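Suppose you are handed a protein chain with no further information: no name, no annotation, nothing but its sequence. What can you learn? This example shows the usual starting point.
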Amino acid sequence: MSENIVGETQLRFMKRQKGQISLKNRAFRIAGYAFRIFFLLLLISCSSKEVKPVSPESKLAQEAFQVAEKLKEAYISKDKAALEENSTVDGYQALIKGIRYFDKAEITFTPTWVEINDLTVSLTVSWKGTWTIGERMLEERGLAIFILEGQPLKLARVQRESPFSQPE
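A reasonable first move is to predict its three-dimensional structure. Written in structure tokens, the prediction is:
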């Protein structure tokens, strides 16, 4: 008789274990389905092809960056025609007066601030450059504000430390 009681207890215990395992499996299945549904909704919401339009101020800022890069490349390659093309008449005259002789130059611009007032854009750039004159190599760094005017934007003047009047 004692064997019969032990056998019944073991049978009940095994049934409980099977039921618990079944509940755990069901919970994992439900969690798996919930995760799949969440992931599917996430994919659907992120796959929108709607693109926000670029604001006019953003376009002006991008154009200002491009003009600054064109001026830098023209200065490095000593291309006076490109400098004149990307500058106003007064801006070109001031730029040419400030240019010093160099054999080779490398300059990097890091834009730090753009301020837009009507059709005038003030582009503040942090710059770092190295100039080679004969055997001598000079390093300089500074902060310049390019005042760009007109449509398309052209350099009107450079305030603070001009990278184009280096090396000093």
